[in-house]
Amino acid sequence: MRLVDFEALSFDCYGTLIDWEAGISAVLDPWAKQSGLKLSSEQLLLTYSGHEAAVEAEHGRWLYPQVLAEAMRRTGVELGVAVSDQEAEEFGGSVGQWPAFADSMAALQGLAGHYRLIILSNIDRASFAASNEKLGVIFDAIITAEDLGSYKPNPRNFTALIERAEEMEIPPGKLLHVAQSLFHDHVPAKEIGLLTVWINRRHGKPGWGATPDPGGTVTPDWEFTSMAAFAEAVRVAAAR
Known about the structure:
- By secondary structure, the chain is an alpha/beta fold.
- The chain has helices at 20-34, 41-58, 64-79, 85-92, 104-111, 125-132, 145-148, 155-167, 182-191, 227-239; strands spanning 8-11, 116-121, 141-144, 175-179, 195-199, 222-224.
- A six-stranded parallel β-sheet has the order 3-2-1-4-5-6, with helices on both faces.
- α2 crosses α3 (64-79), α3 packs across α4 (85-92) and α5 (104-111) packs parallel to α10.
């Protein structure tokens, strides 16, 4: 398959289009410093990541701000520092302030000329609306954890994606999933038979950051280090 053989792209949002590690660090770093913890941003993200994934698995019907708040509380417990209700709630409400990656808007606008665009995200509708303003495109479909009552990597979310593509009359095999997280996206997407593009935002960095270890081997079909590089590859392929 070539990149131009597809009719639609489904996107993870946070980590792929929105810089969730920057957003998380903007809250956790000053909290840790104020609490007397001498940990780097990378160490904090690593500690935090497992707690967010665990809360999502345990509480699929919670809205994402609730997930963030509880994940911060559990991070505090692991690090031996109390997290106040105000701190947890402020973190939960911070999603709308998380920045888009610098290349996301232009890349999406270019890709919209070739494909229909779908969001499949571990988010709630209100938080995504704030993020969508930073992305500069109108998505053809938006599927959130709030809609489904479950969070990726739950296979249910990808089944819902396939069903939505069928409703949109996207032919089988013509949907390509684009994401940064191997754990949340590539492993379950490949298991359901989707081809995938890995936007490897953490290239050159050790470890997994805010994304849990995928726990096995997964091979995306394409890999790019940025949305800009992916969009340029599509542009070149289309020109040919």
